[in-house]
Amino acid sequence: MSEFCGKLIVFAGRSSFNSLMAQVIGISLVKSGNAFTRLTFISSSEWQTLIALVDAMNALPLSIKRGFENTTSEVAMEESNVGFKEQTNLPIPSLKGYVDGNYCDYRNLNKLNGQEFEVVLHLKDGMQLGTQEVGSTAVEGLKATVHFYFGLPLAENRMQSYPIWINFESYEEFLNLYVVKPTYTLRKLLSYIPVGMNVETTVALSGTAATIFVTTRGDGAPVTGLDADDMNILASNADDVGITAVVESGGGFYIIDIEKDIGDTPADLDTGEYATLQVNQDDATNYTHASNSETFTQP
Amino acid sequence: MSKVKYNTRLGNLSLTKFKAWIVKNHKDDLDKAETIHKGLVAKLKAKSEAAKAAKK
C-alpha cells in the first residue's frame, strides 16, 4: 500500500513510566566507519580507544556546558485558503552549542568546519544517544555536518565565544534513537582526550632542517624531551616522508630534519613539496598529548 | 652520547646507507654511527614484536 494512499494504524499502548529528555551538554564527533555494538557503545575502554589510540584518534568528545540551542525549524502548519491546517514541512534536527575550551582549541576545531561526522549526544542526566537502524545490530552516532565559525568576542555573552553548529542529515535516525545510560560520565570521556600542545615554526624549512617551538596549550610551558618518534607526518605530497632526526635546543625548541624516502635513501624535499606535522606523546597504547598540525613547504 | 635523536625507522637502512646519511646530516655522530644504527635496529625489532603481540 502506498503511503500516499494510506497507512496501517497501530495504537501501541501506553507506558506506565513517564520521563523527560535532559538537555544536551556534550557531543562526541566520531569519524565515519566507527560503528559500535550495544555493548561497546557504553564501554569506557572502547571510547578511550576511539579517542586516543596511537595513530588512530577517531572520536572527539566536546563539552557544550556553556550553552545549547535547538535550532531545528518549527514544524510548519500551513493554512489553506478555506481555513484548514496541515503539516507541510519536514524539518531536519539541528543544534547550536557553545564549546568549552579556549581560543587555541577553537582555532584547531575550525579546521573541522564543514566535515561530516557521526555525532553521539550526551545528556545532562548521563544518558547517551546514538541511533540503531532497524534490523541492524550496529549503534552509530547521528550523521551530521559540523560547522565552526569564529567572530568577534561577544561582549554581551562571553559564554557564547566558541559556537558549534551541528546540522543532522536524517530525521529517520531520530525515530530510531538508541538511548542508554552508561556508567561513566561525559567528564570521564573528556579526560581521555590527549592534552593539547601548540607547535609553532620558528625557522622555516630550508633544505633538511626547520625549527619548531612546542608548548603545552593550557599553560604555555615548554615541552621538553620529545624525540623523532613523537613527530608524525600526517600528510605530504612527497613519498615516505618523516622526521629523521631531532635535536633539542632547550626551552621547548627543536631542530627537526624533514626528509622523504626515509625507508630507502633519505633526501631533502624538493621545491614545492610539503609535509604536515603533528607532535604526539603516548604511553605505548594511547596518545597522552597531541598538538595542532603544522605544515612545512620546501621553498 | 649523541645530542641527536634519530627516527627508529632509519634502522631499516643498511649500515652503509645509514653512514652515508649521517655524513650528510649529522657528521659529528659519524664515529658513533654503528652503535646508533645497532640501537635503531634493536628498537625497530622490539617495536614490531610489540605490535605482533598486541595483535594476538
Provide a descriptive summary of the structure in words.
- The complex is a heterodimer of chains A (299) and B (56).
- With 299 residues, chain A is mostly beta strands.
- In chain A, 9% of the residues lie in helices and 40% in strands.
- Chain A has helices at residues 44-52, 103-109, 171-175, 186-191; strands at residues 24-30, 59-63, 68-70, 77-79, 85-87, 94-98, 116-123, 128-132, 139-140, 142-148, 163-168, 177-180, 195-206, 209-216, 231-236, 242-250, 253-259, 274-282, 287-297.
- In chain A, strands 1, 2, 3, 6, 7, 8, 9, 10, 11 and 12 form a 10-stranded antiparallel sheet that branches. In chain A, strands 15-18-19-13-14-17-16 form a 7-stranded mixed sheet, with helices on one face. In chain A, strands 4-5 form a two-stranded antiparallel sheet.
- In chain A, a hairpin with a 4-residue loop joins strand 18 and strand 19.
- Chain A starts with 23 loop residues before the first strand and ends with a strand.
- The mean pLDDT of chain A is 95.
- Chain B has 56 residues and is mainly alpha-helical.
- Chain B is built from 2 helices and 1 strand.
- The longest helix of chain B is centred in the last third of the chain and has 23 residues, at 33-55.
- The termini of chain B are far apart.
- The mean pLDDT of chain B is 90.
- Strand 16 (242-250) of chain A pairs antiparallel with strand 1 of chain B, so a sheet runs across the interface.
